[in-house]
Amino acid sequence: LSIDVGTQSIRVGVLDIRGQVLGKLSKPFTLFNPKPKYYQQSSNEIWKVCCDGTKELITRLKIDPNQIISLSFSSTCSLVILGENDTPLPASPDSPSDQNIIVWLDHRGLKQSEYINSTNHRALSFLGGKISPGMAPPKLLWLKQHHPSTFNNARKFMDLSDWLVYKSTSTPHRSVCSTTCKWTFQSTATPQTLHTQGQWDDSFWDQIGLSELKTNNYSLIGESSHVYGLGHSVGSGLSEISARELNLRPHTKVAVGIIDAHAGGIGLLGTQLPVGEEKNENKSDFREELEQRAAFIFGTSGCLMIVSKQSVNVNGVWGPYYSAMIPEMYLTEGGISTAGVAIESMVKSLSGFGQAGAASFEELNVVLEELARSRANADEDFNVNKCRLTEQLHVVADLQGNRSPLADPEIRGGIIGLELGFGRNKQSVALVYYATLQAIGFANPAKNPTLFATFLPLFSRLRSRSLSQLSRQITPRTKNG
Predict the structure, then answer these.
(1) What is the chain's mean pLDDT, rounded?
(2) How far apart are CA 190 and CA 196, in angstroms?
């Protein structure tokens, strides 16, 4: 059984041992936005939704809970704050204690990230040279400076996926994925070791003003010996209490947690090549084949994930992270902070959207097809004709800053090429929708020439099957893609 916790909903899925999906469902939870740039969640609410969703799906599928042999969690990289006896502590001074999660897209720590970047500490070299305000250190520094009651009373700061595993097992182990990618842990993990080989950099926390976190071997953010590699089970499995709440068998195996995008990256990079595609049968190491692939993960945000056997540093691109996704391989990821949420925001915020009608995305896709046919050029491919619909309309989709390659959280988006009467019908809404899709689809390769110059000769481009047909059409392709 797998549970994925996103930005506004959870997904629960049951798979058989061959990997076939037997059933799945989605359930929403609350995303609190108490003020601009502040986004919060409740760990209590999320856990309840996870339990309700699990019980509902198992009942729907008529599965004996004893048949569930393992449980795994993936989630956004959000910061969970726990006090004495694991009580939730408020994420901001004016919030109730139940709102104890600072969400990944929260940018309250903008000034703190600028300060951390000004140190030019060596730890930043594993983050493309700059830390993002969405990562854990700026948020922790913000808590210390602006909400000291929560900071001083906290007993655990955890990434959300690690907290879900902890809640399930009562074992305070951390994931090499979350700690390396979002907390600056320096991993040297290998698949032969249960406990990750790696360490925190004392000088980093000293220099940015968070030396308190070193207390008791970093117990607040995770002792080095408690950082586990992916693919391992945690402790004795599901605790008695959590088993009752989830209606599962006690001691069911629980896997080390993983960031949601990275779970998708493993899924895409591990996908078999299509039947009939030429393969090099002489390859003795599957890692060589993985180096020829890239995963474009598309959700609320978006990222392009590449793994390599050798460390590759690219300014403005996160990584290289060792063994954070694929054991004994370096992960490099470029991305866009607002992908799916930018599409939704652009469409819903158009001044004439209400007048144009509550058009669903499916309706907008149909409108685009009709527009493309009405302006068809017999000498050109139909998809080329469709692309020309927006040749004078351009969208910058960086509504929450630029993640890569500029690593500038203060950059903002925009629309260029609007005409008089814009927004009065579905056609104009559909065109902005399409231009936003194009902006996101081209964001990684078009803005990241250094990254692509490094890896392009190796690409056999993969794209998620969950993307709509329209999204797949506008996602850039390489020669082999």
Answers:
(1) 83
(2) 7
